[in-house]
Amino acid sequence: MNSSILTTLAFSIYSNKGAYALFLGAGVSKAAGVPSGWDIVTDLLKKLAAQNHVSDGKNLEEWFREKYGCPVGYSSVLQELAKTQTERVGLMKPYFEPVGKERPKPTKAHHAIAKLAKNGYIKVILTTNFDRLLETALEEEGITPQVIRFDDDIKGATPLVHSNLTVVKINGDYLDCRFRNTDNELESYSAEMSEYLRRIFNDFGLITCGWSAQWDKGLVDIMRSSDNFRYASYFSHVRDLTNELRDIAQYRKGNAVSIKDADSFFSELYERVEALARCDSDHPLTKDIAVARIKKYIADPNGLIQYTDLFEQEAQAAYEKIAKELNYNSFDKTTFDKFNELHFGAIEKLMPMCITAVRWAKPEHEDAIFNAIIRLSSGFPTIRNYSEDAIKLQKLASLYLMYVVGISCMIYEKYSLLDKVFHIKVPTEYEKEFLIEQVNCKLWIDDNTINPILYENQRYYSPFSRFIETQLKPIFAHLFIAPKDYECIFDIFEYFLGINYYYIIYGDSNDGWIPIGIYDKRAEQRKYTYRDNPFDAFLATASSNEQNWAPIKQGMFNGDYSVYQKAKQHADAFLKETRIP
């Protein structure tokens, strides 16, 4: 076959994981010894002639036309031998389960397809075949697909986007009497099946093999009713290209691809896709590549699966890297530095991914961000240690990630997303608690505990808050011209977290506390040295806009400015009460 087209197809499958559907016809099973439709016609015609005492030497096709008044065809011969669908099961079964012979086994094509499906490159397979060779190959790879055979299966089916693999046996299964194989039955499909197939033809790229388009008029009509081709189509053929296949390829603006056979086509395609995967594994995903992919997947209407997979893979990789070193035996500077470096390094790609995702995310992209934070907030093996301060080290990655997402929300004014972050609940030893209770700048409540760890002999107000700000500064440096602007955004986030903390944890109570960051210490200094600073401007905008203030309009504080005002008053009262002169 054309090597350049195969290269293009391999790149498309690899780069758009799960975006292509396979459409398999009888030619894919031919190498397994499963007879084609015409092979079955020829055999049935001999049996019919024998019943009518017609010798083998006679032209059986001519005899059939004279006797029954129509040309020989799969449908015409079958209708003379079996009048009902139930009778047809018994008639057809020996062709798929030959008596006294070894059953057909999956071909190289079936095995290559199963491997592509196992690795997530193929999520939808359509087939007009009655045999079960594909299911056998998938089972050998440990895959149990969702199988759609009839209209009833569609109603309870998992949506295609959420199913790991869906196999649609368009004409049914030879062991079920409802299968379709006569002209009348293949003329059209039910409204449910037609719409299901049309959706697939619209949403997925198409790769056909072993299908000529000559006999399946109903399927061709459904293809022609599809007019939204998001991905390319490839119509493969062995030897001559049929007029019907050429016409539908032209209609879908696809490529007609000449191949040797199904086995070599799918085997080589799988090898090329795997070569691309090996190439990427030899060159690990960098931060820049990860960010570029996040942008690409968000911009692509069909990129949600790849976007979610990328977040899940990176979060899981970070979790495993941290869990592997889980031995917080003591709490001293050496231990802190070691595990801070471990946690921060584990999420080096996740942090810029989150900044980019927050900026461009639509609502459907938010769950992947939340799930990454949650994955790193819980589930680590329990450590029985006398030092609670040391055990808190395992929260570092989730704390950094929550701060990165929160600060990004402030920068890009994504307050609805920020509200959801503040309301995330994570599992603890006994129940679920709000994330902000578990990870904030007062992870170590007593400053006397963390100060000597971070700064040895020096003493700072809100030492851990100061430390987090310094750690994250390089992550956000490209977004700010003046360093003071970053400090202000950091302070706004921590102060806003404190107000939300009071509202979410204590509600209307007059007795509560908030995590105090360095924003409080810098408040007076900011007023005299930094005119028109973002911190004071943010609060001034709240006072002047009230119900029209962006955080309120986007649903924070239950969309009620008075609720915000009350929570702020409680937070400010606590700050005033605890402020060091």
Biggest sheet statistics: 7 strands, parallel
Identify the overall geometry: elongated
Radius of gyration, CA atoms, in whole angstroms: 32 Å
Strand % is 5-15%
Provide the low-confidence segments as ranges. 175-183
Care to count the β-strands? Answer: 9
How much helix, percentage-wise, in residues?
Answer: 55-70%
Average pLDDT over all residues: 86
Q: Give the strand order of the largest sheet, numbering strands 1, 2, ... along the chain.
A: 3-4-2-1-5-6-7
Estimated structural class: alpha/beta
Distance between the termini: 81 Å
SS element count, helices: 29
Would you kindly provide a written description of the structure presented here, covering whatever features stand out?
The model is unreliable at 175-183 (pLDDT under 50). Helices cover 57% and strands 7% of the residues. The chain has helices at residues 3-15, 37-51, 60-68, 74-81, 85-96, 108-118, 133-140, 151-155, 183-186, 191-203, 217-225, 243-251, 262-282, 287-299, 304-323, 333-346, 350-360, 366-375, 388-391, 396-411, 415-422, 435-438, 447-455, 463-476, 483-506, 519-529, 534-545, 550-553, 561-578; strands at 20-24, 122-127, 146-148, 166-169, 205-209, 233-238, 255-259, 425-427, 432-434. The chain is built from 29 helices and nine strands. The relative contact order is 0.07. Helix 8 (151-155) links the parallel strand 3 and strand 4. The protein has 581 residues and is α/β, with parallel strands linked by helices. It has a seven-stranded parallel β-sheet, sandwiched between helices.
